[in-house]
Design goal:
The complex is a heterodimer of chains A (388) and B (348). Chain A is an alpha/beta fold. Chain A has helices spanning 5-25, 29-49, 61-78, 85-110, 125-147, and strands spanning 151-154, 157-160, 163-165, 169-173, 177-180, 183-185, 190-193, 196-198, 202-207, 212-215, 218-220, 225-230, 234-237, 240-242, 250-255, 263-266, 269-271, 275-280, 283-287, 290-292, 297-302, 306-310, 313-315, 320-325, 329-333, 336-338, 354-359, 363-367, 376-381, 385-387. Chain B is globular, with a radius of gyration of 20 Å. The chains are: A alpha/beta (388), B alpha/beta (348). Chain A binds chain B through residues 1-4, 7, 54-55, 57-59, 104-105, 108-109, 112-118, 120, and chain B through 19, 22, 58, 63-67, 86-89, 212-214, 216-220, 222, 332, 335-336, 339, 342.
């Protein structure tokens, strides 16, 4: 096949239309991002190919396809596209095969003179190209939007709970919307937004599901945990948990979620309670949070947890500001811990007001934290290691 | 007035007929003294004992390049080998496969030409009068090669036989020419036990197809069509120099002149130029059509500009269309011309 430049670009666009639509239909942003990268790389390389490749034999699709795969995957890494490697390659491979079927069989059948026209698709090329490029992305966006969970608005006023969510939903509270008695989330693909929860054993529970987002939620006076996450993968951001007057409660407890994937707690404020934010046997990132006035620890990552504790502010807590313990692996960076108080009540020397404590075989990478305003800035105990 | 006529029922006419049918243009009349579109090809291929086509998978008579003969072959043999060979540009259908394909399509398409030879095409208002058979709006002339070429100095030599005429081999054979037919004859005569010598004016050009591949499609054709008449004629002259694929080459002794061999095989191709064509020569003279070095100057879609307008179309196929498409005497060339002709028939 001897492509003209226009023919290369038009045929490429035609071949990309289906993968882009498919990417939109699978309801994963990484797929759409990958399809976009494939389009950008393919079209850019078409400009490069044009002059040196006057005739492109059928077999050349293999090395050119591998070259393009390499460039796409490099860009995926460089741009931080969260595409699972195996599925990304499967997606790329399927798109490549589709492109071959299209150019070797379907386009020549559809348009008799496709080959002798150098791959050009005929009249109104600009319109065709625009449609081929834009429509899939618009369509993909529409499909993506269509696939979003249904939106339910929670009106202003008090709603008696506990509220159990057992289907895909985006629950958005109006100003002044309050749920009394707690919320339990038992289904994946749930977003809870702008809701205030008062009371309940747990303020908000997320149990055994993935892809849950808690956005701008407020929990007040829960009896045990403000936000209670078990065996789940959740993104919590911009939340407020007030545990004042609940001496045994925990602000945010993320536990046993290693299998489910990463948890994120970002930009939350926790006041009072026993522990501020605690992660047990889980993987995740605790970032940009403010924790204050707790009685056991400010932020703790324990029981073989893995993750990052960064850019947090912990103040006026008793015993330990930030704890990395019990075989955990922690990246602790750019946190500020101040005003930690000694806890001499039990005679435990490991609670002597440490800004940061690493203990019991844990490994912590520590950098650029401000721990000065504490009785003991750093404590390392029981076989733990710290890599400054 | 009738709508569409194809003058000539060889392979080019057959390709045009199938293309028009696919375009749902029904009122097509084909004039051909032979009912078999491959009749001439059959004789010539047999004469040079050709076993495989020079063309690749898309060297077939259908209007679309896919599915090609490799697909047909793969299905028949239940093997992917033809497809792999096609991807590697190494697939050449056997002559047997190609002829079976022609027979199949002939039966399937209801091909039944009017068994007449059109002797004259005359331009009239809104169309073309075909030798008493009526007036047609759109006419494609596909009369094929005008005859076999034999060098003047060999014309009266009793030892001479043209490669495309049936023949056996004498104990010593001198092959004149440097194209695919010559290369085939070097191999055939050597295999038959003859002492073979080659007489040729130039060293053979070795390339897979008749012309470089970009010239088979718009990429190369756009530049070709932009050339002025003299430059295009010069390029065409170079492009049409004898050539054959590298794998067809056989080393045989080369001599400058025909020697005392028992048999002289003229592998010298065909007569060139519209003057040798009994239909085209008077058409050019009567209508004062522009010509260049023996070629009728055609539009890029192989129509005759002076006789083509919004009401009517006169197009040429086959060797006569080389001014528009250098490989017009191949099956791909036939398809190229047929596509252009179908577009005009469909839109006017």
């Amino acid at each position: 096949m001897s492509y003209t430049l226009r023919g290369r670009l038009e045929s490429r666009l035609a071949a990309l239309a289906l993968p882009v639509l498919a990417a939109a239909a699978v309801h994963q942003w990484w797929a759409l991002e990958l399809a976009g990268l494939m389009a950008a790389v393919g079209l850019a390389l078409d400009l490069v190919y044009h002059r040196p490749i006057a005739y492109q034999p059928g077999w050349a699709a293999v090395p050119l396809g591998l070259l393009e795969l390499g460039v796409v995957m490099l860009l995926v890494r460089a741009l931080g596209v969260h595409a699972p490697l195996r599925w990304a390659i499967v997606f790329y491979g399927a798109a490549w095969v589709w492109g071959q079927v299209l150019s070797h069989a379907l386009l020549p059948l559809w348009r008799q003179s496709w080959a002798e026209d150098g791959g050009e698709l005929g009249a109104r090329p600009t319109l065709l190209a625009a449609v081929a490029l834009v429509l899939p992305f618009v369509g993909g966006g529409a499909v993506y939007r269509h696939n979003l969970p249904p939106l339910v608005r929670l009106g202003a006023g008090i709603h008696q709970g506990p509220l159990v969510i057992d289907r895909r939903v985006r629950l958005v509270g109006a100003a002044g919307a309050v749920v009394r008695g707690g919320i339990v989330i038992r289904h994946r693909d749930v977003t809870l937004s702008h809701v205030r929860v008062v009371g309940g054993e747990y303020g908000i529970s997320v149990l055994g599901v993935r892809n849950v987002t808690l956005d701008h939620v407020t929990v007040v006076r829960a009896r045990l945990d403000g936000i209670h996450i078990r065996h789940a993968s959740v993104r919590v951001h911009d939340c407020t948990v007030d545990m004042r007057g609940v001496p045994q409660g925990q602000g945010i407890d993320v536990s046993y979620g290693l299998i489910q994937g990463e948890n994120v707690v970002d930009r939350c404020t926790v006041i009072g309670g026993r522990d501020g934010i605690v992660m047990h046997g889980s993987m995740g990132m605790l970032t940009h949070n403010r924790v204050t006035a707790t009685t056991m620890t400010g932020i703790s990552m324990v029981e073989m947890s893995m993750g990052s504790v960064a850019h947090n502010t912990v103040s006026r807590v008793r015993g330990i500001g930030i704890l990395c313990g019990d075989h955990s692996m922690c990246e602790i960076e750019r946190n500020t811990v101040a005003g930690t108080r000694r806890d001499d009540a039990g005679g435990n020397k490991m609670r002597a007001g440490f800004g940061l404590e690493v203990e019991f075989e844990s490994e912590a990478h520590v950098s650029r934290n401000d721990l000065r305003a504490n009785p003991r800035p750093l404590g390392v105990f029981l076989g733990a290691t710290v890599d400054p | 007035m009738q709508r569409v006529a194809i003058v000539g029922g060889g392979l080019c006419g057959f390709v045009a007929y199938l293309t028009l049918r696919r375009a749902r243009i029904e009122d097509v009349t084909v004039f051909s003294p032979a009912a078999d579109p491959a009749a001439v090809f059959r004789v010539r291929a047999a004469a040079i004992r050709q076993t495989h086509m020079r063309s690749e998978s898309d060297g077939h008579c259908l209007p679309t390049s896919f599915p090609g003969l490799a697909v047909r072959d793969a299905r028949a043999r239940r093997s992917v080998a033809p497809l792999v060979a096609s991807v590697l540009d190494r697939y050449h259908a056997s002559v047997e496969t190609f002829l079976a394909h022609v027979d199949d399509e002939r039966r399937r398409s209801g091909w039944s030409p009017v068994p007449r030879r059109v002797e004259a095409v005359r331009a009239v208002d809104g169309g073309f009068e075909l030798d008493g058979y009526g007036v047609f709006e759109h006419v494609l002339i596909a009369t094929g090669h005008p005859g076999l070429a034999v060098p003047e100095e060999l014309r009266d030599d009793p030892r001479v036989v043209h490669a495309y005429e049936p023949h056996e081999y004498a104990p010593s054979v001198c092959v004149v020419g440097a194209g695919l037919a010559a290369a085939t004859e070097w191999r055939n005569a050597s295999a038959a036990g003859a002492r073979v010598t080659s007489v040729r004016r130039r060293e053979p050009v070795q390339r897979p197809l008749n012309v470089p591949r970009p010239l088979l499609s718009k990429r190369g054709l756009a530049r070709f069509h932009r050339l002025d008449s003299s430059a295009r004629a010069a390029e065409l002259h170079d492009l049409l120099a004898p050539s054959y694929p590298r794998e067809a080459h056989v080393d045989v002794p080369v001599e400058r002149h025909v020697n005392g061999a028992d048999q002289v095989i003229a592998a010298t191709g065909f007569l060139r130029g519209f003057r040798h064509d009994a239909l085209l020569a008077p058409l050019v003279d009567e209508n004062e059509l522009p010509t260049v070095n023996g070629w009728i100057a055609l539009a890029p879609d192989a129509t005759v500009p002076r006789l083509t307008d919004g009401e009517r179309t006169l197009a040429l196929a086959g060797v006569a269309a080389q001014w528009a498409y250098p490989a017009a005497d191949t099956l791909m060339g036939a398809r190229y011309v047929a596509h252009g002709f179908a577009r005009r028939c469909r839109t006017r």
